[in-house]
Design goal:
The complex is a heterodimer of chains A (about 300) and B (about 120). Chain A folds into two domains: about 35-185, Cysteine proteinases (Cathepsin B, Chain A); about 225-305, Alpha Horseshoe (Serine Threonine Protein Phosphatase 5, Tetratricopeptide repeat), CATH 1.25.40. In chain A, α10 (about 240-255) packs antiparallel against α11 (about 260-270). Chain A is elongated. Chain A has helices at about 10-25, 55-70, 75-80, 90-100, 110-120, 170-175, 195-205, 210-220, 225-240, 240-255, 260-270, 275-290, 295-305; strands spanning about 45, 85, 90, 105-110, 125-130, 140-150, 155-160, 160-165, 180-185. In chain A, β5 (about 125-130) and β6 (about 140-150) form a beta hairpin. Chain A is of the alpha+beta class and about 300 residues long. Chain B is mainly alpha-helical and about 120 residues long. Chain B folds into two domains: about 1-30, no CATH class; about 35-125. Chain B has six helices and no strands. Helices cover about 65% and strands about 0% of the residues of chain B. The chains are: A alpha+beta (about 300), B mainly alpha (about 120). At the A-B interface, α7, α9, α11 and α13 of A face α2 of B.
């Protein structure tokens, strides 16, 4: 990218430039792709391509992720949904929210290792890149659809280029300048290759539509996690499956006996089932665990008919 | 009908509480989103309060006639969004280790909380 002028005053220039050059060289140290990329040494996913119009890489990238999920990903409609004219761009959180609104799970992919894991599991990854400088950013959304040469080259649907390839080294710099921001967008029942319970909880918690199959998958993957079980119980309750919800709340408090919100909700599920005494005991347990919570104070008043614990 | 009411309530709750613990008058079950938001809020408040516990911070507070309790009360009144903004600002301050960093961060927080009477950053308070 940078060329040094040859010619007069060369010695002086060398003297002056030497530290600068050393700095540049250290900055240009190559970052190898993670070892994970060795097996298999290449992989390309079949992801529909949508070319972007001026500045509209966000809607185009989202459209590709939706179409990969078998949903309509009409770019023009998505422009209305996620593109902000005054910023001439889309916001990352809006892209995730748009996926969530369609019942898809957006899960963060924020390390090179996770990126390759997801590609190997067949999941395309929407990434944010900063194509310019940290202080003078040029943001760009693209979809990573594969890699070859043991990860030395990464394959992307980017801008107007279908399945274009980029040196890993160059790609990872642009991705690092965007704080390694990226995510997979998965259909109900499917989980990321790399998944942890807490990020999964945070990814699923705001989901309003078709959340139940996602929670079921989460609990199947982490059966001993009380907090995910709580999410499942709430999703069952929201789906009017009260008996199943009651069972799930009971499992939750067995797995996570210190989780005050679970005791609170168990109280309501028990009351609905006609067990007033059990409801009182549960809400009082919640109150012991979280004496300062206004919500639980109200619950105690509600469940005990104002008598308190 | 019931579903409709639940829907309206959910929209209402989301609009006004941004996923905080839901007042029982509206719905007494705690949503998963509400639990997560509540925990994140508690963590942010704790972060600010831990900063206030440092020696350098205590001096700044004393000089301005402000107690940690005042700070805690003001934090409690912020919306999630406001608290998030404040935490981000505080994070940007190089508070790590240096006394000057702590002092600057504390002053910034006091200004943002309007406890120094210098500005009116959050007019709602």
């Amino acid at each position: 990218m940078t060329t040094l002028k040859k010619g007069g005053g060369r010695a002086a220039a060398t003297l002056f430039l030497a530290p600068l050059l050393a700095l540049m060289l250290s900055a240009c140290q190559t970052l190898p792709p993670p070892q994970r990329a060795d097996s298999p040494p290449r992989q390309t996913l079949d992801v529909p391509f949508i070319a972007q119009d001026a500045y509209q890489c966000g809607p185009a990238a989202l459209g590709m992720m939706l179409q990969w999920n078998g949903l309509p990903g009409d770019k023009e409609e998505l422009v209305h949904e996620v593109w902000l004219p005054e910023r001439q761009g889309a916001l990352g959180i809006e892209l995730k929210a748009a996926g969530r609104a369609r019942g898809l799970l957006p899960y963060p992919v924020e390390t090179p290792d996770a990126l390759f894991s997801e590609i190997q599991a067949g999941h395309p990854v929407l990434v944010l890149q900063n194509l310019a400088l940290k202080r003078w950013p040029v943001w760009h959304f693209a979809v990573v659809i594969g890699y070859r040469d043991n990860g030395e080259r990464i394959i992307l649907h980017s801008g107007t280029d279908e399945a274009t390839s980029s040196h890993w080294n160059r790609f990872v710099r642009t991705w690092a300048r965007a704080d390694y921001w990226g995510f997979v967008l998965l259909p109900p029942g499917e989980l990321p290759a790399r998944v942890e319970p807490e990020p999964l909880l945070r990814a699923l918690a705001p989901m309003q539509i078709d959340a139940l199959p996602h929670w079921r998958a989460a609990v199947a993957r982490f059966p001993d996690n009380g907090r995910l079980r709580f999410g499942l119980a709430n999703a069952l309750w929201a789906a009017q499956r009260q008996q199943e919800a009651l069972d799930a709340y009971q499992r939750t408090v067995a797995l996570a006996p210190d989780l005050a919100p679970a005791w609170n909700n168990l109280a309501y599920a028990l009351r609905r089932a006609g067990d007033d005494r059990g409801a009182r005991e549960a809400v009082c347990r919640a109150s012991e665990l979280a004496p300062d919570s206004d919500n639980i104070k109200d619950s105690v008043a509600d469940i005990t008919d104002g008598n308190g614990c | 009908m019931k579903k409709q009411i639940t829907g309206v309530l959910t929209a209402f709750v989301m609009l006004f509480t941004q996923g905080l613990f839901v007042p029982a008058a509206q719905a007494a079950m705690v949503t998963t989103d509400g639990m997560v938001a509540n925990e994140q809020r508690a963590a942010m408040e704790q972060k600010v309060m831990r900063l206030m516990e440092q020696d350098a911070a205590a001096k700044v507070l004393a000089q301005n006639g402000v107690t940690p309790d005042d700070v805690q009360k003001r934090l409690g009144r912020l919306s999630n969004q406001e608290l998030q903004k404040l935490a981000t600002k505080a994070d940007q301050m190089p508070a790590g280790g240096s006394v000057l960093g702590v002092v600057l961060a504390v002053i910034l927080i006091l200004v943002l909380l309007d406890l120094l009477g210098a500005t009116d950053v959050f007019p709602a308070i």
